[in-house]
Specification:
This protein has 536 residues and is α/β, with parallel strands linked by helices. The protein has 19 helices and 14 strands. Helix 8 packs across helix 11 and helix 14 runs antiparallel to helix 15. The longest helix has 45 residues. The protein starts with a helix and ends in a 27-residue tail after the last helix. The relative contact order is 0.06.
């Protein structure tokens, strides 16, 4: 009696059963599907699946509460909308005892099929098949079900392999197999890749202008995209870089399925190969307009910025036995110099901007005074030039739009475009790239003095990107290195820094700081074309 009582008391610690507790009752749901839009529209498979499932349910005495699917969804993914909706419904409705499909491949062909079925089993829900009628509550039935899933997945892999091989073959023969590129319209989208016909649409016609502007190097990517949008293009800024560098537009095929391979395409090119190459070479030709994110070596900050004075070939860099060197990039030139040495010469050059700390206040006043004298006349001149430049650009843009719209033939377009572009270039040159206005004059002078006072140390403590920004800020056209003389020359210095050096020299020569006699005709007055001091 005492022993029996003890057993009863310990019963609450007994283990629960791990055996599957299948849901009882006859309520089920049906799931039907086909893999593609064409199957859904052009055959009766969906209806046939539904009827077979309903007949199976009626024969077994099962009650169909809901029918899901009835559309095209790939069984390779378990993220199908109708499929997920069905699973959610089954989880919520505890009276559903089974999911009925025509065949197990209609349920899932993914590698996750078995795991998904086990999850449903934990809920007590069976997955039944009309075509493969097995008892999934028994070990042998589960084995058969898993085999059917494996064969479905295997069949998928075979199909995928076959499809990929076909795509690769098409690509190598010049036929495009992916989504239609921007600027083109596929007039036969439902046909095989070999039968696709790509025509240049309105966006494509405008895109030809983008390649031209990019090749000219006068506009950055954002300016090009904004200009295209004003002309009616639907181009997206984020995708512009990928578009402009896609060889498809000059008639070639590249694809991730054929890495490292390039083939001549069967489609009509949007631009010539020559224009495409120029458009995609613009960054390397104008490094100060967009510093490359590749090959940033801290020991070689003067890459592209420094040029050989004789050949004008930009310097690139290399490392040999742990020592870094600069060498000329162009073929037929053979100038090289140790990076440490050329960097040192540049340090010496940039240190020439330094001035005595005691002069800072007077320098700021004197430079601002002289700049104001220049700006008073320059602002009037710039106002007129800006208006003329806006009018010239509008004429050029209207001309381009009329050409794209078909109002002008190519000969007239080329004739007037050249004329308008020369006018725009001349006005831009007269106006100056970045004139300083009186409103930011004091800030520009203050910033320029701060940089000049610490230019060498600022350059030494900066990373690769900031070194290049500082270099081009002070010396917009880079530096020239003469190997024979072992000297560095600066073709042009930002006018702010030119005025600082000249004014400091005059102050040094005139200890009393009296510069009244040197006002407007002074040799250190800032010349036309003042560049602003920007943040580095």
């Amino acid at each position: 009696m005492k022993n029996s009582s003890a057993i009863t008391g310990m019963q609450r610690f007994a283990k629960t059963s791990t055996k599957i507790s299948w849901r009882s009752g006859n309520n089920i749901v049906i799931y039907t599907r086909v893999s593609s839009y064409e199957q859904a529209m052009l055959n009766t498979s969906l209806e046939s699946q539904r009827k077979s499932c309903q007949e199976f349910a009626e024969h077994r005495g099962l009650m169909v509460k809901m029918i899901f699917g009835g559309t095209y969804e790939s069984a390779k993914s378990d993220e199908r909308k109708e499929f997920v909706r069905m699973l959610d419904y089954v989880k919520r409705d505890k009276t559903i005892s089974a999911i009925l499909v025509y065949s197990y491949e209609r349920f899932s062909r993914s590698e996750n099929a078995g795991t998904l079925t086990r999850t449903l089993e934990s809920l007590g829900v069976k997955v039944l098949s009309v075509f493969q009628d097995v008892d999934v509550t028994t070990p042998s039935g589960k084995l058969q079900q898993n085999i059917f899933y494996l064969f479905g997945n295997y069949d998928n892999e075979l199909r995928k392999d076959k499809v990929v091989k076909g795509m690769v073959e098409n690509l190598r023969q010049g036929y495009w197999v992916s989504a239609t590129p921007f600027g083109y319209t596929n007039t036969k989208p439902k046909h095989k890749a070999r039968e696709h016909v790509y025509e240049i649409n309105k966006d494509g016609e405008l895109l030809t202008l983008a390649f031209k502007w990019k090749a000219e190097g006068k506009l950055n990517n954002l300016e090009i995209v904004e200009k295209l949008k004003k002309m009616g293009s639907t181009i997206n800024y984020k995708s512009f870089v990928g578009i402009i560098s896609n060889p498809f537009y000059c008639g070639y095929i590249t694809h991730s399925l054929i890495p490292g391979e390039v083939y001549k395409g069967k489609h009509v090119p949007l631009v010539s190969e020559e224009l495409f190459n120029r458009a995609n070479g613009i960054v390397s030709q104008n490094p100060h307009k967009g510093i490359s994110k590749k090959f940033k070596i801290e020991e070689l900050p003067l890459k592209s910025f420094a040029k050989d004075e004789v050949s004008l070939s930009p310097f690139t860099g290399y490392v040999q036995k742990g020592i870094y060197y600069y060498k000329t990039r162009a073929k037929g030139t053979a100038v090289n110099v140790r990076a440490e040495h050329l960097n040192s010469l540049f340090e010496t050059e940039i240190e020439k901007l330094n001035f005595k700390q005691a002069y800072e206040r007077r320098l700021a006043d004197l430079i601002a005074e002289q700049l104001q004298l220049r700006l008073a006349d320059k602002e009037k001149e710039q106002s007129v030039l800006k208006r003329k430049l806006t009018e010239a650009r509008d004429r050029l843009e209207k001309l381009e739009y009329r050409f794209v719209s078909g109002e002008l033939d190519k000969s007239l377009f080329e004739k007037y475009r050249e004329k308008f572009e020369i006018e725009v270039d001349q006005l831009t040159q007269d106006l100056g790239n970045n004139p300083i206005s009186s409103s930011n004059l004091e800030k520009a002078v203050k910033k320029g003095l701060a940089i000049a006072q610490n230019a060498r140390q600022l350059w030494l403590s900066s990373d690769y990107d900031d070194k290049q920004k500082l270099q081009y800020l002070i010396y917009p056209e880079g530096i020239l290195y003469n190997k024979q003389k072992d000297t560095v020359r600066t073709p042009r210095i930002n006018s702010i820094f030119t005025s600082i050096v000249s004014a400091a020299k005059v102050l040094e020569e005139n200890k009393n700081g009296s510069l009244k006699k040197r006002s407007r005709n002074s040799h250190w007055v800032v010349p036309t074309g003042i560049e602003p001091v920007s943040k580095v």
